[in-house]
Amino acid sequence: MRNWRPSPTLQASALVHAGALAGMLFEPGSWPTAAGALAANHVLLTAAGLLPRSTLLGPNLTRLPAAAAARGEVVISIDDGPDPEVTPRVLDQLDAAGAHASFFCIGQRATAHPGLVRDIIARGHTIENHSEHHWKRFSTLGPGAMAREVAAAQASLAALTGRRPRYFRAPAGLRNPFLDLVLTRLDLQLASWTRRAYDTRNGDPASVLARLTKGLAGGDILLLHDGNAARTPAGEAVILEVLPALLARIRAAGLTPVCL
Question: Smallest Cα–Cα separation from 197: which of 206, 187, 186, 188?
């Protein structure tokens, strides 16, 4: 387990807060400047939390390590499941290609579909933590509520799989300065992605595939969704149209899809 050390941004933020508060206490006339500094600091922290691939708030895995990239490894990460309609078909497509993936599961959905969870593991994939409820307001939670939400999913998924997840992905990738300490205490690492195709709202398979494969290279972490997947004009979950073609592109590029 790593020891928690606040990021340089958080350390600087603490200094700004301390300086502003000291100024307002000992030099009352300085409060407009102090208030402006606090406001600017909070804007910066909020912006950092709205950027899923940012490392300003703490460590964030956006690509595989250099050694894995050199081996030509990539990760297909699949969020928001398990889904009883879509996930079994995704698993069949992965099997057909001899590929592995990492599924970032919602704790509550996993508990509702334990057989699917066991099937994901039995087929050689990994299950990671995507929060217990996938609340849209996740990034607004305080430290206690955020810790309970992440820990609940960690407990749910560990009970179902016999393995504690190693990675966490925030709902929609959005977070706040409290998350890094929460993850450190739970021995989790934040993982985002190299690129995503917004396939929860983009139902065009060609567009989704193009976004995922543009500049495809070893070390990439790609994001798709089995839960909350957008639908194609024919009514199919877009991942089911995209995944076989994506796996073929990965194979043609001499790359190997692996778990995180």
Answer: 206
Task: Give the relative orientation of helices 114-122 and 87-97 as an angle to the nearest 10 degrees.
Answer: 10
**Tokens describing residue 170:** 């925030």
Distance of CA 116 to the CA centre of its chain: 21
CA separation for the pair 37, 196 (Å, rounded): 35
| % of residues, the chain, pLDDT over 90 | 81
Percentages helix, strand, coil for the chain, rounded to the nearest 5? 50, 15, 35
Instruction: Measure the CA–CA gap between 123 and 126, rounded to whole angstroms.
Output: 9
User: For residue range 203-227, what is the model confidence (pLDDT) as tens digits?
Assistant: 999 999 999 999 999 999 999 999 9
pLDDT of residue 200: 98
pLDDT class of 4 with cuts at 50, 70, 90: confident
Dihedral sign for Cα 62, 68, 71, 75, please: negative
